[in-house]
Structure formats: structure tokens, C-alpha cells
Amino acid sequence: MSFGDPNNPYGQQPQGGQPGYGYPQQAPQGVPAQGGYAYPQQGQAYPGVPGYPGSPMPMPGGVKGARVILFILGGLQALGGLAVGVGGALFATALSGSSSSASDAGAVAGGVFVIVGIFLVGVSLWPILTAAKLGKGRGGVRVSGIIFGSIQTLFSGGSLIISIVTLGGLHDSGVTPFMFSMLPALVSFGLGLWILIGLANSAASVYFRRPLY
To answer: How does DSSP classify residue 21?
Structure first.
């Protein structure tokens, strides 16, 4: 029997043996070993899965809340601007059939209301566009939201102070009208403050400095 015959199935096998099929072989020196097929190697990233390198960072809760408030305030401001503009146009139309002086006064007042309405609609684009870009924006979008929240808080806080000073002496009217008169300014102040806190905290700072993929 010849042990060197390659066609002999019972011949002597090479000393090195065949590599096993179920277990990975030891890699040569200088070559990193490969792991199994079911588990990722160390440092390997799964895109889209939070916690793995290279995955998109989720939006913090404060930024989400500020984004919703910006959309709401922008929508309400746009609706208010439309109402003011349409009301001014209707007012001017209603006085157009009156005397000359009344018609002229109505036209001027209606034109002022229309201009104010157009201005309010234009300004409403600020919070709406800021909120729309918060998901993919950088620090400039964050600064835009902080400035809007600051202005919102400043004006609503001033309106709240004026309401308190004006209605402070009306003790005979009871508590209910006092609270209802302050409610719009109080809600506006709270929403503006929420925008500031949501966009100015450390979590928002880290989020807006994240790498974009």
C-alpha cells in the first residue's frame, strides 16, 4: 500500500490536518482574529441604533418640547395675522359706502390693520422655520430658538407685570376676573420660558454639536 498515492482515501493524511468547520482557527501572528458570524466585532457600528458609534443621536426631550411649542406659537401667530388682515379689509370695505370722511378714515384704518396682519404672518415664519430645522440644524438654529424664546418671555413677562399693576387695585371685582385677565400673559410667559430651558441646557448643547452623517 502506498501512502503517497493522492487517490487513496486510506492513505496517510498530512500532519497539519484539515481546519475545523465549527470553530475559527487561530489567526497568524500579526493578523487580528475574526469573530463568529452572529456577533459584531468590537467597535463595529450598527447605523441607526442608539448607543453604537456612528448612530444618530436622539433628540433630547427638552428640544422636542421646544420644537412643538415653536410650531404652536408660529401657527397661532399666523392665524392671528390672517384674522387681523382680513378684519382690516372687511372694515375698510364696510365704510367704503359711507361719507367721504368716514370712507377715508376706514380706508386708512383698514390699511393699517392689513399691514399689521401681513407683518404678523411674516414674523410667524421665524418660529415655524426654526422648529422645522431643529432636527438637522446646528448651533445657529439653536441660537435662533433661544432668541425667540427670550423675546417671547420678555414681552409676556412685561405684559404680566402691567396686568398685575393695572388690576392690583381692583379688589372689589373678585379673584376670578383678575386671574382670567392674567391668564394669556401667564401662558405665554410659561411657553417662552420652556423654549429657553429646552434649548439652553447642557443636553441641547451636546445635541447641536453632534456629528452629522
So the answer is: S
